[in-house]
Amino acid sequence: MSVQTDVRAADPAIADAIRASEVRFTGFGKTFGTGEAAHTVLADVDFAAAPGEIISILGASGCGKSTLLRAAGGLGPATAGTVTIDGTPVTGIDGRAAVAFQEPRLLPWRTVRRNIELGLPRGTPKAAARDAVDELLELTGMSTKGELRPKQISGGMAQRVSLARALARNPGVLLLDEPFGALDALTRIKMQDLLLDIHRQRPATVLLVTHDVDEALQLSDRIVVLGRRPSEDDGPSTITSIVPVPGQRPRDRADSGLGHLRAELLAHLGVDTHAAAGARSASD
Ligand SMILES: Nc1ncnc2c1ncn2[C@@H]1O[C@H](COP(=O)(O)OP(=O)(O)O)[C@@H](O)[C@H]1O
Ligand SMILES: [Mg+2]
């Protein structure tokens, strides 16, 4: 354990602030619209993420991944069942969960530092704010970029700032909606490693929406697959499987032992890896 971790644990206020939370969906469902226009997107979602777990939510486009995540962040209430954080229902945006999206959503006229500041709890004293932002810049590898504006930094850096802003309130739950989806492949890998690094230092519970099977395998303790029940192919989505990922993080990207899981997850998403391999060799 690092010295820094020991120092944090010695300060009860900080140790408490970085405590991870349990997120629980119980009979969760979401219907948009009413009457004739009612459209039920999710139904019967029962699932709990344990404090400190990294859970990926995987599913085809439009199956309700963002809807599920938004409910945990208080951005769109359940229409059936409940979402709770540490046993207390989520009824609106509160300080227990923070969200980062695929687009970094930075304010272009504010510096990196001032964008991160936006995530701090209202009324944070100036000196404490400066220290907190310094620490977040360091944590996300942005220490030398604090005075730059969003148009002066790369897409990967902008996502680092977005993460730092989400972390600024020390959330017990970090909700990430395809946070690396718009980045090139190499930057994406670096950001995945950064996320694991951050998680080691600030072990919040993470719900990560992705449609990238390899990303899910690389980062998660468990993968929640959303999809339609086979019997009702135009019905709402629900959890079709929960797949534990073996081994400790950080995982070796070249580990072929995860190959069978990869094939299984792709099959859940409707991709037949054997057919794909056959098609490839036929065109060689
Ligand atoms: N605010 C909304 N009003 C009506 N329908 C919505 C709203 N948000 C999402 N939906 C619908 O819910 C379904 C799931 O959307 P979403 O959760 O964004 O899927 P995913 O993130 O898995 O791609 C889609 O059919 C979408 O059109
Ligand atoms: Mg989405």
Structure description:
This protein is an alpha/beta fold and 284 residues long. It folds into two domains: 21-96 and 172-256, Rossmann fold, CATH 3.40.50; 104-170, no CATH class. It has ten helices and ten strands. It has a six-stranded mixed β-sheet with strand order 6-7-8-3-9-10, sandwiched between helices. It has a four-stranded antiparallel β-sheet with strand order 2-1-4-5, with helices on one face. Helix 7 (185-201) links the parallel strand 7 (173-177) and strand 8 (205-210). Helix 5 packs across helix 6. It is globular. The termini are far apart. Bound molecules: adenosine-5'-diphosphate (ADP) and magnesium ion. Magnesium ion (MG) binds next to helix 3. This is ABC transporter ATP-binding protein. Keywords: ATP-binding, Nucleotide-binding, Transport. GO terms for molecular function: ATP binding. Residues 229-255 are annotated as: Disordered.
The CATH architecture of the largest domain comes to 3-Layer(aba) Sandwich
Strands ordered across the widest β-sheet = 6-7-8-3-9-10
| Tally of structural domains | 2
CATH superfamily of the largest domain: P-loop containing nucleotide triphosphate hydrolases
**N-to-C terminal Cα separation, in Å?**
51 Å
Helix content: 25-40%
Do you know the CATH topology of the largest domain? Rossmann fold
SS summary, helix count = 10
Given helix and strand content, the structural type is: alpha/beta
Under CATH at level 1, the class of the largest domain stands as: Alpha Beta
Q: Return the average pLDDT rounded to an integer.
A: 89
Work out the radius of gyration: 20 Å
**Which regions have little confidence, pLDDT < 50, spanning 5+ residues?**
1-16
Keywords: ATP-binding, Nucleotide-binding, Transport
GO molecular function, one term: ATP binding
Protein name: ABC transporter ATP-binding protein
InterPro entries: AAA+_ATPase (IPR003593), ABC_transporter-like_ATP-bd (IPR003439), ABC_transporter-like_CS (IPR017871), ABC_transporter_ATP-bind (IPR050166), P-loop_NTPase (IPR027417)
